[in-house]
Amino acid sequence: MKEQILKILRSSGEIVSGSALSNRLGISRVSVWKHIHSLKEHGYEIIASSQGYRLAGSPDALFPWEFPGRKSKIHYFSEVDSTMDIARDLARRGCPDFSVVIAGSQKQGRGRLRRSWHSSEGGLYFTVVLRPPIPPVLSPRMNFCASLSLAQTLRRLFGIEAVVKWPNDILVDDRKLCGMLSEMEAEADRVAYINVGVGLNANNDPTGVEPGAVALKEILDRPVPRKKILTEFLDTFETRLKTPDFDNVVKEWKEYTITLNRNVKIVTTNETSEGRVVDVDENGSLLLELADGSMKTILYGDCFHV
């Protein structure tokens, strides 16, 4: 009902009487008033008068009703420990493919290797639950699909040179704009689910706690619409997954990366490796040339350009 009320008010742009809303929605005027009151409590600026209601402004909101066509799969929380934890529980309980968990802020946001991810209000934090019909060996390609889709979305919306750093960070001018984390459960030769978590610095300020980080607001010198970013990303990502070309996604990803031919340090839970990146194979593994000329294949880890 909130979605329908907002749609009517937005399409009108003028005052809409309570009786008109009541007639169009098939509910009483008292019910209309209750929904209007609820929307105002959620931050919508709705001016009420004897003539009716007018929408004067909307918050940068990520509520389910702000995503027509997706709202049944959107799970929004003002604050959580981690969207990954909630998404894991939903996935294990059988939630549908492409369910999305969104948080206004996270108390225990995390990145790769259990590192913490600063998640203050104003950022864009979400996890997408995926159920692709693929074997586990192909699962890393889903991460490359996600980072590629988001880099393309940011370029298209804001005209910025968003690039990817292996395995799936997004940078602008060598400053970290976004991090991604994935988690998978599989049964034999079938993926049960893959959860892709995204932390994008949008309107928050990460510079005091994340050295080398940057937010879109700082880059563009203005606030950015998080709802539009998320909508565009989900549309782009889902379209790509509906016509998956798993043989070429890494090849296309390479066109957006700045990790190739760079000297890097790769940190995992067990070891640290240093060398020059020669290539990324078709499944997303890093091919590293060590100082002695030998080659090493890196399946996962945190990558630092040096």
Task: Describe the protein.
There is one protein chain. This protein is an alpha+beta fold and 306 residues long. The protein folds into 3 domains: 2-57, Arc Repressor Mutant, subunit A (Orthogonal Bundle); 64-254, Bira Bifunctional Protein, Domain 2 (BirA Bifunctional Protein, domain 2, 2-Layer Sandwich), CATH 3.30.930.10; 263-305, SH3 type barrels, CATH 2.30.30.100. Helices cover 29% and strands 29% of the residues. The chain has 8 helices and 14 strands. It has helices spanning 2-12, 18-25, 29-41, 83-92, 140-158, 216-220, 226-242, 249-254; strands spanning 45-49, 52-57, 74-80, 99-106, 124-130, 163-165, 169-172, 175-187, 190-200, 263-267, 272-280, 286-289, 295-298, 302-305. The strands form 3 sheets. It has a 7-stranded mixed β-sheet, sandwiched between helices. A 5-stranded antiparallel β-sheet has the order 13-12-11-10-14, with no helix packed on it. Strands 1-2 form a two-stranded antiparallel ribbon. Helix 4 links the parallel strand 3 and strand 4 (99-106). Helix 2 (18-25) crosses helix 3 (29-41). The longest helix has 19 residues, at 140-158. The model has no long low-confidence stretch (mean pLDDT 92).
